[in-house]
Amino acid sequence: MALTLRGLAADRPLGLRVLTGDAALDRPIGWVHPTELTDPQAFLEGGELLLTTGLALDEETSPAYVRRLVDAGVAGLGFGVGLSHDEVPATLVETAAEVGLPLLEVRRETPFIAITRAVSRAVAADEYAMTVRIGKAQQELTRTAVGKGGPAGVLRKLAKLIDGWVLLFDHTSAEAAPTSAHAHAGSVREEAKHLRSGTRAFALDGEEVVLQTLHTRARRILAVGTPEPLDTAGRHVVNAAVSLLSLALEQDLTLAHAWWDLRKGAADLLAAGQYELAFGLITTVWGDPPEPPWAMVALVGAPAQRRRVGDALDGDSSLFFAEWGSAMLVVGRSGGDVLDRALAAAATVPPMYAGLADPVRLEDFEVGAEQADLAARAAEADGKPLVTFAEHSARGLLSLIDPVVARIYAENALAPLRSHDETGRGDLVGSLRCWLEHHGHWDTAAARLGVHRHTLRNRIRKAEELLGRDLDSPGVRAELWVALQA
Q1: Taking a C-beta distance cutoff of 8 angstroms, is the pair 395, 482 a contact?
Q2: Cα 328 vs. chain centroid, distance in angstroms?
Q3: Are 282 and 301 in contact (CB under 8 A)?
Q4: Residue 337's closest CA among 351, 323, 356, 353?
């Protein structure tokens, strides 16, 4: 800890006497600077203890002198008596008291060099302690990074070392240490919008928060919050953590991509019928694969969502999962709880959409994967969490048409009939639907509608007139049926 004016004044062999500025005696002393200049501002950085015998000072010049020192940001003034002045000038004492500048009387028996040595020893000890602290902190962070702790362990260790909290986040997720730091995520993300690279500091709920970008391909930012601004050692510790996190995350990312590609390769082998090779790879790397027949679930979502679902499923040896196109394919023993586990993993990163294939034999792996993928796409289009392939295939031709396109087509195709029906002069849309459902049988459709067959004939004739289409044409009937189902 840096030597303060209070600590220096308490050094009895120096015999210093505090004349003014008791409230500011806890200021740290950055250095000692003896000078007899009446305006030493150009030679000061701030934080110094200035020593003078007042050779060029008197009662008239002292007040302005004191104010210049305050403007320069000195920590305090030591005035040596017994040489040019038997006592400190009264106006100097009065002005120092007025502006709150600590003023120490230095007796003649105490050479300025003794004060310089005392401060120099304290500064050297402080710098040594800081070096030791930085070194120990870097060792602890490094051991954590290369050990089992990984990036999450580094975050916990960093929070402890700086006696604060940390957040590591990208555009989709955030990790916090301690976990209560998640409460700051919203404010920190908002402030991070102003940071492109490097460092940015801001105040948050009475604390100082420092944002620093990591040296990774994906944009990641480390946020560090502390009750007081970080000192030099603290900044070094944070910089060390940034370097270690950047390295660890890049290594994790490279390794994750390799494992991901290996899973995809195994799925490609199964689709190509290379079962022995595929099973050998899966068994060697992840353990025995589930026994066919299989339940197969496809999960549709953004790449980051699929990665996080993979992380959630990783370690479950009873399942095999891999990317299939732009979906995540989850494979398990038919009759098990594959669907429940896949949906549970997907629920952690909504919104995701699931498709379930019919039970799949080994030789039908590719067919099952395509079925699950098609069902998942249908779930996404309908905004449903799950669609089975059985449900999807039951939709027939309409399942192959984009829902938005189908809706627009239906609105345009049936607009003349709906416009007519709004006038209240008959139900042409409902009559056409019923007539087509019953394959153009007049009596059956009329009975279903509760009208006379001649009434139905008139309605269909009116519909044909408004549509300008020949309803005896099978193609026209098919098009209108699709429009009625959309």
Answers
A1: no
A2: 22
A3: no
A4: 356
Q: Could you read off the pLDDT of 95-140 as tens digits, one per residue? A: 999 999 999 999 999 999 999 999 999 888 888 888 888 888 888 8
- Determine how many CB atoms are found less than 10 A away from the CB of residue 217: 10
- Given a contact cutoff of 8 angstroms between Cβ atoms, the answer to whether 314 and 348 are in contact is no
- In this predicted structure, what is the pLDDT of residue 184? 92
3-state secondary structure (DSSP) of residue 175: strand
Report d(CA 232, CA 141) in Å as an integer.
17
**Cis check: omega of the bond before 351, within 30 degrees of 0:** yes
pLDDT at residue 384, as a whole number:
86
Is the model's pTM score more than 0.85?
no
- The backbone torsions φ and ψ at residue 392, rounded to the nearest 5 degrees and listed phi first, read -65, -45
Ordered mean pLDDT values, 10 residues apiece, the chain (486 residues): 88 94 93 93 93 94 96 96 94 96 95 94 84 85 80 90 91 87 92 87 92 82 92 88 82 69 89 89 86 91 85 82 90 85 85 88 90 88 84 59 71 86 81 83 84 88 88 82 76
CA–CA dist 367, 357 (Å, integer): 9
Longest pairwise C-alpha distance within the chain:
130
Please count the CA atoms within 13 angstroms of the CA of 309 that sit on its side-chain side: 32
Report phi then psi at 212, rounded to 5.
-140, 130
SS3 call for 188: helix
Tokens of 388: 């089975």
Phi-psi region of 290 (alpha: psi -120 to 50; beta: other; left: phi over 0): beta
Strands (E), 217-371: 221-226, 294-300, 320-324, 327-333, 353-356
For 38, phi and psi rounded to 5 degrees?
A: -80, -15
Residue 77 φ then ψ, to 5°: -125, 130
pLDDT digits (tens, 9 = 90+) for 213-223: 887 767 889 99
Is the Cβ–Cβ distance between 358 and 389 less than 8 Å?
yes
CB neighbour list of residue 283: distance below 8 Å, 6 or more residues apart: 289
Dump the DSSP string for 32-79: EEE---S--GGG--SSEEEEE--TT--TTTHHHHHHHHHHHT-SEEEE
What is residue 399's predicted lDDT score, i.e. its pLDDT?
56
Q: What angle do CA 29, 32, 33 make, to 5 degrees?
A: 140
pLDDT recorded at residue 256 = 67
d(CA 196, CA 175): 20
H-helix or E-strand spanning residue 7:
helix 5-9
CB 137 within 8 A of CB 161: yes
Amino acid identity of 470?
Answer: D
* CB-based contact 366:271 (threshold 8 Å): yes
**pLDDT for the residue numbered 316:** 78
